[in-house]
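Budget justification aside, the reviewers requested a transparent look at the raw inputs and outputs of the sequence design task funded under Objective 1. We therefore reproduce one unedited record. The lines immediately below are the structure tokens for a 481-residue chain.
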């Protein structure tokens, strides 16, 4: 294990992150809310820690191996939870556990909160909550990969450990740094368009930019306790619908569609088609039941609320315009179930990812076919390409671990004091980086015990790092290799 390389990259990442505290300081000074000193202290501590790690080894040229890449990502995300919690500890006066929970919920784009009374928080704290979701959406590590060539750092191992999805070795461009830069340019461009659209739809600039941050990142934090329901504006909801979908589509498809100027590529991609089919089918089912069961009798109103909530849940954003936890029949648990599907691989969304669900279904169909034709050669294809058995096996392994994690974490949450429904939905909401749950955690997570919050912090990290990245460092072979 190359400790010097780990120190170099972790120190550089922390130093880079410290610069992101400048915008909240500017917001605080602009609004005069008195929080600038708290952000300055956090900046000093973060930069100091980063430089203390980086300076002693700064003259080295660093090339990370696979093990170092995984370890740096895990160390950085856990460190972010502590450092990022400082402003929440200083201003809303959250305890250590609550502050770490809020910070990691932001960075992992989960959107679960322990804060009540968002409307009364200082503007700079509200900005900070929205900003950390935006940074976490594409991943600070991927941003660093784009910049690290200037520091002499190879970034492929960081990219593999950070990027969501089953096929991590695919690159859009020959150089990994160029790939990261391209993804971030698209991410920034979509954020700007989203903010402009929110402003035109009726938000003020502060809310427009803040909600653009949490929409493109599919994070779901809002500057208001009532989330987007605060505005009660169908045009704002329509903007959110469009950009939540954009955030949940593979950014590789965004890149190719822009680079080749062929928007038809979205419908040619099997994962994108399946994702949109899930959204349409779920919306139709929910809209019909909302109308028939009398929650929203008018068809247009039923469609409005169904479309928004289905998109918000399946993209793991977690915005709300209606309390779906109180919807009739099986609708609340149905929405929790579809959050396990999530968005597309290579997106900011959570869940298992649509491509994995597709491969699981195709593998199930193949096993049925093998019962009929035991000697037949039945390859699994996706988009006309034969999938390797290595990828298919990895998907099955991921699914098994995902279900095992869900069951284990749910039992731990019951042991921590929640009823079964609240425990299951809390785990689903954090493992799928969704945000809102059912029962006791429908509105927020403030009432969860301290032990339960630490279980959910682990669940958020597992969901954001897609299990393997975090679990691999716990295996004895990782440390022996």
């Amino acid at each position: 294990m190359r400790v010097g390389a780990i120190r170099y990259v972790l120190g550089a990442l922390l130093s880079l992150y410290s610069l992101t505290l400048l915008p909240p300081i500017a917001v605080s000074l602009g609004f005069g809310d008195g929080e600038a000193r708290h952000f300055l202290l956090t900046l000093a501590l973060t930069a100091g820690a980063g430089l203390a790690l980086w300076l002693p080894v700064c003259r080295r040229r660093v090339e990370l191996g696979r093990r170092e890449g995984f370890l740096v990502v895990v160390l950085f995300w856990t460190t972010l939870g502590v450092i990022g919690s400082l402003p929440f500890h200083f201003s809303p006066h959250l305890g250590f556990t609550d502050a770490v929970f809020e910070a990691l919920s932001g960075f992992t784009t989960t959107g679960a909160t322990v804060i009540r009374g968002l409307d009364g928080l200082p503007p700079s704290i509200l900005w900070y909550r929205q900003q950390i979701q935006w940074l976490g959406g594409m991943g600070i590590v991927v941003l660093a990969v784009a910049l690290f060539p200037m520091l002499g750092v190879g970034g492929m191992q960081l990219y593999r450990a950070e990027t969501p999805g089953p096929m991590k070795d695919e690159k859009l461009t020959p150089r990994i740094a160029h790939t990261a830069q391209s993804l971030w340019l698209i991410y920034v461009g979509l954020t700007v368009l989203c903010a402009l659209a929110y402003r035109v739809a009726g938000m003020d600039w502060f809310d427009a930019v803040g909600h653009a941050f949490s929409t493109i990142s599919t994070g779901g934090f809002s500057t208001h306790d009532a989330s987007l329901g605060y505005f009660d504006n169908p045009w704002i909801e329509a903007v959110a619908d469009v950009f939540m979908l954009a955030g949940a589509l593979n950014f590789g498809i965004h890149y190719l569609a822009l680079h080749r100027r062929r928007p038809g590529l979205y419908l040619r991609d099997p994962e994108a088609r399946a994702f949109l089919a899930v959204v349409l089918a779920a919306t139709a089912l929910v809209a019909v039941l909302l109308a028939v069961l009398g929650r929203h009798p008018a068809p247009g109103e039923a469609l409005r609320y169904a479309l928004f909530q289905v998109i918000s849940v399946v993209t793991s954003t977690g915005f709300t315009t209606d309390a779906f936890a109180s919807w009739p029949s099986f609708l609340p648990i149905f929405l929790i179930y579809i959050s396990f599907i999530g968005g597309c691989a290579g997106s900011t969304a959570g869940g298992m990812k649509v491509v994995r669900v597709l491969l699981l279904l195709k593998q199930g169909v193949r096993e049925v076919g093998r019962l009929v034709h035991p000697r037949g050669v039945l390859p699994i294809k996706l988009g006309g390409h034969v999938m390797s058995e290595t990828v298919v096996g990895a998907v099955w392994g991921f699914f098994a671990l995902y279900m095992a994690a869900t069951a284990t974490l749910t039992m731990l949450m019951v042991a921590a004091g929640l009823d079964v429904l609240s425990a299951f939905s809390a785990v689903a909401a954090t493992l799928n980086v969704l945000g809102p749950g059912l029962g006791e955690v429908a509105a927020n997570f403030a009432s969860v015990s301290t032990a339960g919050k630490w279980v959910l912090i682990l669940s958020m990290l597992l969901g954001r790092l897609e299990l393997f990245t975090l679990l691999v460092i716990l295996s004895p072979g990782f440390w022996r290799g």
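The chain has 23 helices and four strands. Residues 166 and 394 are 8 Å apart (CA to CA). Computational costs for records of this kind are itemized in the attached budget.
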